[in-house]
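Reopening this one. Same input as before:
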Amino acid sequence: MLIRPDFRRVIAASLVTAFLVFAPGASVAQVPIPAPAPVQKDQSAEERGTRLAEQLEPIKLNVEQMEATLQREDLNDATLVRTRGSLEPVRDELRELIATRERRLEDVDTRLKQIGSPPEEGQPAEEAGIATERARLGERRTNLDGALKQARLLMLRADNISERITERRRALFTRELLGRTDSATSNSRRLR
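Same output, byte for byte:
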């Protein structure tokens, strides 16, 4: 079984720590633990939305470039293979982005459910902090949902490109195969 070097270090450090903590009679000088870095204020929803759009922009440009390439009629098999090769990393990145956004959206939905609905009219008002948090989470949910929809749309376009490449390669193969058959048939007729 192969273990990555990074995991080896983590496992080794964990084993040493466990031994030192649980070993009878082991005494270790206490090392002061550094204070955690101060928590930075969350980015505004607008900044997060901009960041999400910035992450999708290069992917969108790649997909558009591949779509434009497939518009050409003079594509050979090597170009189609090269285009497919550059498409796969884009699809992998989109899958990862979609999975990440889905997890984040689920987290936001869970927190929104934990907070609950706002009180109806006639009921006691809730704390301002809860109302602010609900509004912040609602805005975050909207941004995540929008980014998720954009990523899914790009994934659909990338899948479409993959299918078109397959169809184009199949057509080229068929044309080449039939061309060889026609020339073989015409050569055999000449020999008679």
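So the earlier flakiness isn't reproducible anymore. For the record, Residues 70 and 164 are 8 Å apart (CA to CA).
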